[in-house]
Amino acid sequence: MAKLRGLVLVGLLGAVLFTASPALAEPVRPAAVAVTVAHGAAPVVAQSTPNPGPVLDPAQTDKANSEKTKNKLIAGLIAVVLLGIVIWGRRIRSKKAKGS
Length: 100
What we know:
Layout: H1 2-19, E1 32-36, E2 44-48, H2 58-99
Antiparallel strand pairs: 1-2
């Protein structure tokens, strides 16, 4: 039962790590607001736009995202293989211990 619990926890952790993608989150940029008051007039609210950020090429962004996804899949596959080796080794060790 403990093995099953451990496998479930590893599976959930892997699912959370591989599905959460911080690259998709967009930062919130609040607009700057300035209030000016003239003599005898009502306050006027003027909004100024922030300086534009760097221009990103969508082709380069897509290429970077695909490379990152590929690297995550390779790392996940290696983790699964190593987990399989560990489980297989423990099973063999427990069979030897029972036989002795």
